[in-house]
Amino acid sequence: MTKKKPERKRKPPPESEQTLLATVKSVAVSYYVGNHGDGVSDEAITVVLCDIVAMAPNMPKHLGKEVTCSLMCSRHYGRVDDQDEKGWPRIGKGQTVPERPFLLNMRLGKDRGLLSAYLPEAAYWTLQADLKSGRLKFIEAKFIRPRHGYGDLTSIYFSETPPEKP
Length: 166
What we know:
With 166 residues, the chain is mostly beta strands. The protein has one helix at residues 121-133, and strands at residues 17-36, 39-56, 66-78, 94-97, 102-108, 112-118, 138-144, 150-159. The chain is built from one helix and eight strands; from the N terminus they run E-E-E-E-E-E-H-E-E. It has a seven-stranded mixed barrel.
């Protein structure tokens, strides 16, 4: 019986960050509210449809494809009796969930891409208004190199003019 030599474990290479630049084509807004056992919660969603105009490193197969950027904001209202509330039902003040930005995955498929984030309430409503008015025309997303089409989103930048280099 021969013994196998233990294989040397290699440290994986550092994951490289990639950049995608897209132009805004359209903006759609939706709102959801629902009862839950411990209160009421709501969620506002802004879906921004874009075209990919540049990528670094260059990935020609994705240029010109659509990417959807979903921005969300959520609140939860607990069922507590709030003495300051004059009307009925007295369910208390809304708690924004989460109170800090939360970036989700970046997905790049052969036909389209998708990225999404939960934002604090004030940032969400400001961005939504600027996107709907057409003031913000570009989205730059940075993400870890995708594996099987999915990568971790590391930042999203919204601007009126394209950044210097994607």
